[in-house]
Amino acid sequence: MSDIRHSLLRRDPLSAAKEVLYHLDISLGSALQAPGGPPALEKATVDLVEEFIFHASRERSGPPKRMSCVQELQLLEIMCSYFQEQSKDAVRQLIFSALFGLQGNQADDCRMAMLGKLVSMGVAVCCVPILECAAAWLQRSHAVCCVGIARVLVDDYCTLVPGSTSTLQQVFSASPRFCCQFITAVTALYDLSSEELTPPPPLLEMVVGWITEDHRLLLLTFLNMPLTSPLPLGCLELTPLLGLLRWSIKAPLAAQRKRKHGLTNGQPEAEKGAGCEELYSKLHLSVLQVFLMLQAHLTEKNLIGRLSVLQVDHVAALVEEVGRLGEELNPLNAANHIQLALDRMAQALQVAMASGALLCTREDLRMLCSRLPHNNLLQLVMSGPVQQPHAPFQPNLYPHIHAPRATPLAHPAHVISPHSFHPAIGFAYRPIR
């Protein structure tokens, strides 16, 4: 590797970076065909990538080398062209992982900055190979890093340049897999805990439009993830369903909090708020419909009662957020908004439990929601049909639940009790506006 490095030092920065990409392509492409799969990347190769692509200093105390803006743009074009021209998806994924897999050192900041710019360029030129590689990266990387990439895209296409959202919107038809991971990342970024963490209207409109056009978009990662593969620690959720529920349920409270703080003044802002309320209502209905679609997939794979798509502890955290936000508002002035949020929560809990996405008993549900303000629909959901003591079991109320597997699933799951919701129970619902 020392000979390669000395040869690269005599080249200009762009030529050296291109040569490192060529070296990676040859070495990893050959290793991919070897028995047992590709080996781990050698440290010497990692050092070459960091020095000649990300321009990190070889001395730990030394500052990183800086490229001019023109050189950086040219380097991004070289990367974009490489991924576009490489015909083998497995090789592309390996090279992408070799370039942007975090190593836990100072070069990681350069990696993340370059990755954000490369994905943004991939969106701008609609480069499907980069978007597909980025989708896989988002699926296996830590949520904090994924949120950073999502923030870059939101800034570039939804905040800084008005009207540029249409460029990001076209990605829907090019790479639905990337869109699914992007939605999951932005729901982790924006949790409506503050005005700064509320999704901007262009982003909200785009996400709702995607989901309305094709509900299956939210389930792409879940359906393509082998159940035997454990999820990496700290990664994003398998679906953005929980994050989108947080948006639709907390939206009325967040809007009232904004009015309380006097952040909206005048008719134009009021009209914008009304438009967002309509979008959140559409989002709520779409999420409920996705839960019903999910029921069919769980039934087909014989996973009803054995695989929890929504984790109880995550739902408990959402319930706590809603309760805390409701307490911050004046109940006398925000009663309608609080009731709207609780109505949506009740509907979401009912449909999620009835579809098998949330494994939770009625007793657990009562405990979760015990501190929330009174809501008629929520009380109805928590009560439901009651099996009388010593009475014969009624299959129409509590249908048979399959026994758990002898080998536990990779994803967390537990068997629900006879007093749980089950998808065979019929229910009527309508979206709460």
TrEMBL record:
InterPro entries: INTS15 (IPR027844). It comes from the Eukaryota. This is Uncharacterized protein. The lineage of its organism: Eukaryota, Metazoa, Chordata, Craniata, Vertebrata. The gene is C7orf26.
